[in-house]
Write a structure and sequence with these properties.
By secondary structure, this protein is an alpha+beta fold. It has helices spanning about 80-90, 95-100, 155-160, 160-170, 170-180; strands at about 20-35, 40-55, 65-70, 110-115, 125-130, 145. Strands 1, 2, 3, 4, 5 and 6 form a 6-stranded mixed sheet that branches.
Length: about 200
């Protein structure tokens, strides 16, 4: 599979609770998911953002990877906007709020807080913050990866874990994609940003 990660099974180690140096290594679009909140049916367009913890290693010597689910929205109350602004160290401009390319965060360093999931079922990313000024982050270990339903790639879809594939298959976008004529497929490009703001 080359640069693409896959789920080969085996045991899973949850990242330890605490604050860790991290880097965004994957962004996965799982489309519009239907759920329920306080008795009401909700539809939310969601993404999964995955972070490598290069200084916190598993038993096999590889960095832990932790993830966070986000509603794909920059509404002022959205968790995605809150975390991105904490990560950037400044608020979004009005122009940026109109159309922000999420590929800008791929490969970018940050700090993440890892918290316990409810009922003690492992851990997850609680929040994302900026790297302290002058702090050196180790080089990225795992390859960067992105999957977008509106830029569908069969190769990238096949690289997803079975669990994430099942989520994608439940989305409205997947249903539309499977019932539509295939279009031109192309992979998104990574964006390098050399300014003071990381993205």
């Amino acid at each position: 599979m080359g640069r693409f990660a896959s789920d080969k099974g085996g045991s899973f180690q949850s990242a330890p609770v605490g604050t860790h140096v991290a880097r965004c290594i994957k962004i996965i679009d799982i489309g519009t998911q239907t759920g329920e909140y306080q008795g009401k049916v909700l539809e939310r367009n969601q993404i999964i953002v995955m972070f490598e913890l290069p200084t916190t290693l598993m038993d096999d010597g590889n960095p832990f990877v932790a993830s966070k689910f986000y509603t794909n929205s920059l509404n002022e109350k959205a968790n995605l906007r809150h975390d991105l602004e904490q990560w950037r160290g400044r608020a979004f401009s009005k122009e940026e709020l109109g159309s922000f390319d999420l590929m800008n965060i791929l490969g970018k360093p940050c700090m993440v807080s890892i918290i316990e999931k409810p009922e003690g079922k492992g851990t997850k990313v609680g929040s994302v913050m900026s790297i302290p000024k002058g702090f050196q982050v180790p080089e990225q270990v795992n390859p960067s990866f992105s999957f977008w339903l509106d830029e569908y790639s069969e190769e990238k879809y096949q690289a997803l874990s079975d669990g994430i594939k099942k989520m994608v298959q439940k989305s409205n976008e997947w249903q539309h994609l499977m019932n539509a004529d295939p279009g031109d497929n192309h992979d998104p490009l990574e964006t390098n940003d050399e300014s003071e703001v990381p993205f």
